[in-house]
Predict the structure.
Amino acid sequence: MTSLRTRDIIALGFMTFALFIGAGNIIFPPIVAQQAGEHVWLAALGFLITAVGLPVITIMALSRVEGSIQNLSSPLGKIASLILTIVCYLAVGPLFATPRTATVSYEIGFSSYFGTASSSLLIYSAIYFAIVTVVSLYPNKLLDTVGHFLAPLKIISLAVLGIAAFAIPAGFIPPAINNYVTAPVSEGFVNGYLTMDTLGALVFGIVIIHAIHSRGVTDKKLVTKYAVIASLISGVGLTLVYLSLFKLGLGSHEVAPNAANGAVILHAYVQHAFGDAGSLFLTGMIFLACMVTAIGLTCACAEYFSELTKAPYKILVFILVGFSFIISNLGLTKLIAVSVPVLSAIYPPAIVVILLSFFWKFFNKPAYVVAPVTAIAFLFGILDGLKVAGFNLPEIIQHLPLNAQNLAWLIPSTVVLIIAIVIDKVKK
């Protein structure tokens, strides 16, 4: 029976961590910290639940079903399960997350050198996606290219940034603003959605399982064991990165007061900490962070759609990268404007499916419990998405519990879960 060497287990953990850390993960914590002010660690608690806890749990859940979202969501029925799977892959693949890696890495790292003209982004994204394509064409080499090479570089650069954040005094800490005044935990919780890590984890599960298989490990218990270890290593890494970025944002008021976004804070802070060399350092770090995530997403999507359609994997890599290239040139503002409402709708049902997957064995008929709770979560998720998109909803909806925190789905889903469990136990 083949097993992984300690070196490969660590590389697998590094690879999993590196797949998660994209530009969004580096941008959002500083702006959350600056706006949360004195309530920063309460906001951090909420943020870590959705940006670390849920992704780690997701990888653990997927490790038990060979990395397949469709198997994980099977109690929903074939059609609903297939729709959820395709939506997740498209959202974190060619429609939102993959194009965002190119657009964000350009705007943060390269726009100060090459300008903001659309032609500059076009040339950059063409080169960027060419590299993504070359690495993605060989998924069996992912543990070597990402786990042993790109991930350590990424981790070293993040460690430098994190040490600087803790070494430099925080300075003036102003009061909290916006929703962080009254509801810092739930506001941090919802902002954790924007990292897209839970949806990313749903997609990366298959990449991690295939990376384990590429080393000749086929025993299901061992595959699950190594995937769980990898998820825990990545969880520790993510927590350390986020805590250092919260600390960085907390001390950023003097160098970037009232910043519009986390990119502005990072630019100003790195310039303050490292001087002119800081801009080059930030450019390299963001480029690495985005590149690794884009490679992981492309491999995962191509592998899934290859299994679904029986189309050749390599042809699908070119198709997916082509779509990502086109959409990335629409610009970051349009991408975020569209993606935030969609994420608000997708996240609640995804969270329900992930969490309930651990309790199937306690239900007589898992479908009778999972399906109605997921349906309710999706319904209220759509309402949250419409609200975020700027639609005026009826007065009764606006007064739902936790609606102000974009968590209106939580209480109805819990109520339906309790009712479904009672019926499941009584009816057997």
In short: The CA atoms of residues 64 and 221 lie 8 Å apart.
